[in-house]
Every structure is written in C-alpha cells, then in structure tokens.
C-alpha cells in the first residue's frame, strides 16, 4: 500500500515537531519557581485524572495558584481548560483572555491557541472565582502520591516516618512539601530556597542541614523548623505556612500574612496557604480577627495579590 507523499511529509513533520514542542514546554517549566511547578504538576494530575478523580475545577484551582505566582503556564492552562475542557466550563471569550495574558508573559505556545475571531472577555478579578461549585473539594493526597514516580513516593515516606518525631502533623508536613517542591529533592527557587522543604541556606544552618539536596537531611531540617514555627505561632497553620514563605520575622512584623508597601502580597504566600489548606483538608483557623482577600491580575515583576488580614491579640 503506497502512502501519499504529502501525507508522509505531514507525519514526518509531526514526529519532528512534537518532541521539539515538548522540549520548549519543558524548558519553560524549568524557568518557573518550584512552587509554581508543583501547582502545575498537581493541576495536570487533576485535569487528566492521574492518581486523582478527574476534576477540571480542581485543576483550575491549582493552575490558578500557579498564575497567582506569575506563572505564564498557569494562565495558559486555565485558558486551555476554558477552551477545551468539559462543556459546562467552556468559555471561549474568557479562555482567550487568559491565553492572551499567557502570551503577554512570554508563553510560546499561547499564540497558537488564541482565536482572533473571538472577542475578549475581561479577566476575572481573582482566577479562583472560576472554581465556583468545586472550591471546597479536598485534594486527595493519598491518591496523588500513589501515582507519583517511586523516588517521589520514597520522599513522602520519609516525611511520614519523621513527622511524628518532630510533633508535626503528617498531612500538614506532606501538604507543605507538596506545595513547596512537589517532593523534588533537587528543587531550587529564584531566592535559593533548596530541596524538598525549600529551605534557604540560613535556615539550613540554623537547623543543622548539612546537605540541602539530601532528601532526608532536608526533611529533618524542615520538620525541625515547622516544629519551631508551630510553637512560635501557637499552632496557627496559616501563619506557619506564610512564615515558611516569607520568614517568621515578616509575619510578626505585619501581624499576619506579609504585605508589600502598597498593600499587595508579593509572590506565593496566599497560594501556599490555599494549597496547604486544600491538601491537608484541615481547618487552618486559630488566629482571632478577620480576613479579606482580593487578588489582582499579575504582571511581570509586580506584586500580585491584595490581602488584608488583621489579627487581634488575646
């Protein structure tokens, strides 16, 4: 049977172009912060039903966490779900807006998905508004872990073994490790936080970590730090998660989740708290006061969320 020459060329081009496209996407992810990569990997598991029940709303929530951190891939994947996901979630105009934002942030594949014939819809004030109806569904840690590669599952087992020895709740320790690095011992952030628990060098020295890229040593140091934070913040895991991100001094100075000078939360503090709350399926309340959160659409190099969180003493 003779193969049409034009068809042969199409197939040949596809075989060459697909690996090249995947390589470009992999290189883009390599430029993302570990927290953003973690949210993207977990969102993809929810979108495709790998280890988790297939859940497009949960995928959007996790992609939103990446987008809040300024991730071009996070914006792109939200747009992709709104464009090609389940029929009840499809919104071509809003998908176009998220895809355009991804392109503006430098996402190389986004222009291929942009449809110039579809009008723009205004971006949501907070991409988590897209979760309506599914925001409360917990993240299935056990299911997700079961589908990870063996080396990542071994890291999770080390956390389970050591957490009780440091008086840290196992599921919260796993939640923070998943949010910080997705259990990647080699993860390094733009601020040089390293390893599974994303410890900066000063914290490593403080808690006796000799090799940040040795998973067990990093986990022990991270758990020791969490135990110390648990005592300092009276078990309030929302503040503990914020302190992991910004440092305990910043949390104390601001009386809660740290803000920038213009009242906007920079980087990942709120996203990490949301991830930990979702994955651990725990109530993170415990500090008196009120919380009012309003996210802003991020731009390159800008602070990305507006947060007001007032704590009262006593």
Features:
2 domains; 14 helices; Lysozyme; mainly alpha; 5% strand; disordered C terminus; 314 residues; Serine Threonine Protein Phosphatase 5, Tetratricopeptide repeat
What's the quick description here?
With 314 residues, the chain is mainly alpha-helical.
List the helices and strands and how they pair.
Layout: H1 5-30, H2 34-48, H3 56-68, H4 72-84, H5 92-104, H6 110-113, H7 141-146, H8 150-163, H9 170-181, H10 201-206, H11 215-232, H12 237-246, H13 248-254, E1 264-265, H14 269-280, E2 289-295, E3 305-311
Antiparallel strand pairs: 1-3, 2-3
Helix pairs in contact: 2-3, 2-9, 3-4, 3-14, 4-5, 8-9, 8-11, 9-14, 12-13, 12-14
Question: What does it look like?
Answer:
By secondary structure, this protein is mainly α. The protein has 14 helices and three strands. Helix 4 (72-84) packs antiparallel against helix 5 and helix 9 crosses helix 14 (269-280). The longest helix has 26 residues, at 5-30. The termini are far apart. Residues 8-24, 260-270 and 283-314 have low confidence and may be disordered.
């Amino acid at each position: 049977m003779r193969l049409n020459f034009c068809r042969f060329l199409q197939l040949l081009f596809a075989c060459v172009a697909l690996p090249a496209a995947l390589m470009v996407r992999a290189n883009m992810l390599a430029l993302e912060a570990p927290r953003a990569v973690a949210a993207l990997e977990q969102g993809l598991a929810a979108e495709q039903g790998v280890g988790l029940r297939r859940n497009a709303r949960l995928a959007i929530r996790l992609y939103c966490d990446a987008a809040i951190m300024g991730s071009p891939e996070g914006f792109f994947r939200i747009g992709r779900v709104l464009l090609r996901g389940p029929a009840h979630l499809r919104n071509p105009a809003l998908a176009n807006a998220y895809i355009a934002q991804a392109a503006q942030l430098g996402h190389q594949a986004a222009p291929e998905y942009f449809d110039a014939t579809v009008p723009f819809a205004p971006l949501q004030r907070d991409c988590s508004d897209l979760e309506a109806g599914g925001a409360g569904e917990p993240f299935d840690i056990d299911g997700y872990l079961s589908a990870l590669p063996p080396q990542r599952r071994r890291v999770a087992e080390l956390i389970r073994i050591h957490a009780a020895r440091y008086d840290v709740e196992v599921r919260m320790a796993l939640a923070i490790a998943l949010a910080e690095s997705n259990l990647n011992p080699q993860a390094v952030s733009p601020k040089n936080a390293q390893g599974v628990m994303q410890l900066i060098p000063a914290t490593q020295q403080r808690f006796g970590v000799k090799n940040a890229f040795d998973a067990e040593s990093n986990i022990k140091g991270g758990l020791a730090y969490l135990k110390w934070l648990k005592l300092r913040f009276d078990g309030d895991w929302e503040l503990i998660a914020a302190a992991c991100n910004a440092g305990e001094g910043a949390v104390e100075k601001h009386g809660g989740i740290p803000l920038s000078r213009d009242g906007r939360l920079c980087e990942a503090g709120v996203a990490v708290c949301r991830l930990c709350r979702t994955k651990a399926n725990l109530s993170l309340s415990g500090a008196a006061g009120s919380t009012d959160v309003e996210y802003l659409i991020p731009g390159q190099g800008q602070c990305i969320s507006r947060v007001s969180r007032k704590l009262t003493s006593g």
